[in-house]
User: Fold these one by one.
Assistant:
Number 1:
Amino acid sequence: MSDFDIIIRGGTVVTSADSAQCDVGIKDGKIAALATNLGSADRVIDAEGRLVLPGGVEGHCHIEQRSAVGGVMNADDFYTGTRSAVFGGTTTVIPFAAQRKGATLRQAVEEYHECAGPKAVIDYGFHLIVTDPNEHVLNEELPALIEEGYTSFKVYMTYDALRLDDRQVLDVLACARINGGFVMVHAENHEMIKWLSDRLINKGYSEPKYHAVSHARLAESEATHRAIALSELVDVPMLIVHVSTEDAMTEIRNAQSAGLKVYGETCPQYLFLTADDLDRDGAEGAKFCCSPPPRDAASQEAIWRGLANGTFQAFTSDHAPYRFDDTGKLRAGPNPSFKEVANGVPGIELRLPLLFSEGVRKGRIDIHQFVALTSANIAKLYGLHPQKGTIAVGADADIAIWDPDLEKTINYDQHIHDDVGYTPYEGRTVTGWPIMVLSRGRVAIEDGELCVERGSGAFLPREKSSAAKPLGRLVPEMDPARNFGADILPTANK
Ligand code: URP
Ligand code: ZN
Ligand code: ZN
């Protein structure tokens, strides 16, 4: 009998911390040994000249979800979404189970499980989206769901269908503090966006490019500042998602410098697209409408700096896929106003190749930062580490074997496996590609083919994250020793 099910032999194994020239022995879906000259296996994979990396962990993607604008259904279901992810070297996804206003969180979780269970080809968890933080949600549902492994939730400061006001955000933060949940925030100033949108539309500026005008930079930086203040008031850590501007990034950096547990996430669209992409003929610009919108070259450079200097912990796709037809971006007609366009761009498959090519190959970040930003940090933030996000004995054998020199000029029909019909990165040349991917020890991608079945991905209940633990540093107004003894601080989870 063989010592291992699989040995990956002779590659360079890289984690967020280390590199080693060694073999990886896999048994029963787990990494069982890391050493040179490992013994026998049922299958030996030659990784000479290759990089052996932890599979990516996708911490922000929308799959089989309806848009906040017009209730449009995502182009990808859990089969095509996870298929596309794994072709791009990602082995775990954490999409959202979104509460419909008037429905319970529990209903959302059940509905998304029904969608994912029979279709997902790789492992998945769910963040929750809290749109109605009523007493029942805050006192019953969220505490119970956190204990069941839905340990993170997103709140929105904009979108009529989703937004919470500041008081509601505080309620959710307080609930997170008591129960050990981790809060993600979509930070944009709702009234600024609405006011700008109304003025633009009233004056006849309705093409997709005006989406980028309506979602002003100041709307993002102001809301980011406010979200951080709310987080500090109740001493609850927070992740600001999909950061697009230097000013919002600086708000996060300043909070981190002040010692606050404020984390930052950014995405490919803020490195590789600009507002000019929305300024295309006809409705074509709608393909690039997402929120916040892509900005300009100076913002791209700033975001690269934030990835390199550690301001951002997570690089995710915010894959929010809509087809360019009447089921998606053009749901309101062939020439929709920017207010009628479902927000979001696809990117789950190219997230890693784009960052590898432009980040690692061009020397903006090193390979360990690459692993940290795309896998290890995300697993840690969301309570999946060390099961996911690393190559270590005992971890799940979720591994992407990369050819660091393989060059591809992106062509949607040839290279992309989602169900969207286009990629915003068409024609871009990338160097470095995941040529073989293993998911829990199963060969999932080989020779350009998907080798795992629909529904073979497993649900991942997640631990409470240490990132979510309060600092224990109170502002005077929340500190009974300095607020005349008022006991108003929600009791922290230990
Ligand atoms: O435009 C985007 N990002 N759409 C997806 C929803 C969200 O806010 O993340
Ligand atoms: Zn968002
Ligand atoms: Zn999103």
Number 2:
Amino acid sequence: MASKKKIQTYQAPKGTYDILPPDQKYWERINKIVRELAVFYGFDRIDTPIFEEAPLFSRGLGLTSEVVEKQMYVFRTRGGDELALRPEGTASIARAYLEHGMSVLPQPLKLYYSGPMFRHESPQKGRFRQFHQWGLEAIGEGDAVADAQVIQAAFHVFKELGISGFNIQVNSIGCKKCRPHFRDVLKSHYRSLLKRLCSDCKRRFKENPFRLFDCKNEPCVALRQSAPQIIEYLCEECHNHFKQILEFLDETNLPYILNPYLFRGLDYYSQTVFEFWLENEPNPGNFALGGGGRYNYLIEILGGKPTPAVGGAFGFERMIEIMKAQKVKIPEVRPKIKVFLAQLGILAKRRCLKLMEDFRRTGITVAESFGRDSIKAQLRVADRLGAEWVLILGQKEALDGSIILREMSSGAQEIIPQEKAIEAIKKRLAAKQK
Ligand code: AMP
């Protein structure tokens, strides 16, 4: 007996997925609202490559950040360059800012972006290896109003999309002047508690004690309650900056919550950090809709002049999941079909192909099912699509230059000359609008 040959099949790589047609409307909707609001608040679009030189991220984000340490897709090219798939957008934008000498442009330079990012994490709810973010960056402005405006613009994107039940967590993590002191205070507090920390936290204690606050283990969370809070240790400048942000947020009625444990994992942040959290999420910090902060040192770390900047990034996948869960209505992106072209026979099919093109130029929406030969089957499609009129071109009509115009609601039909078809539809459309 001949052995059955196993057929090789393929699947999307772990942690990635296809965006199938029924879901496209969410993507289009988010991109549209992001574009409209970003433009309103004065942000211009920027696109950067999806891979960069790997050290851009290791220097920019910090070697001990989780993203660089564990999640970056790094590869060597045939030419020996070490590249990384971008795990986030900010470092690339800072690189572009420097590369294109954008510091000579009027500041702040306000940019927005949208695209795929890559992190090697274990796939779970709302966590993918290829995921998508949109983000806002305001570079060259140290005033707290820039922080408030990034938060405000992002907040209104969510609102405009119809997403509800979230709040904004904010904290200040200080600057080069005050943070080291707080780091020492935090370390001396935790030193006596080391034995009670989990093994991850023991390592965090050594490498980056602020990450002690990220731990989800119950005993570590409990210990956190008695830990010192940075707000008490901010220098005057950071304190005032933070106070101003809160005043701006109050003024614009944004629902924020002070969160002294929010540090965000990246080295490049200073002063403000924020995240958008869902109210009913059991583990909101793990399923944030987005977040960001001030990164006053990043441009300098990457070789530029000290340049204050602030930004935030927001995840499409989580937003879409919430839009679905909250049954958010998406306006139809496909225009309603007005006319359906039905045909019988090769000559009629050819004419219909041409007629479709003529309709496209007029802006009237048409649909077809040229692969079907039965008129009955085509009328069924027309009905399903909600076409208001069907133009039927049979073998006889194709030869004698006529066409049948059928009104779907009444079933009434009339025969008109083919060259009058568009005009007849236009007339009926105009009559309906009256
Ligand atoms: P982050 O800067 O890491 O806080 O990311 C900002 C936002 O991007 C998060 O709040 C998520 O909405 C989204 N995000 C980050 N990582 C992932 C991931 N692996 N899968 C899906 N969304 C993500």
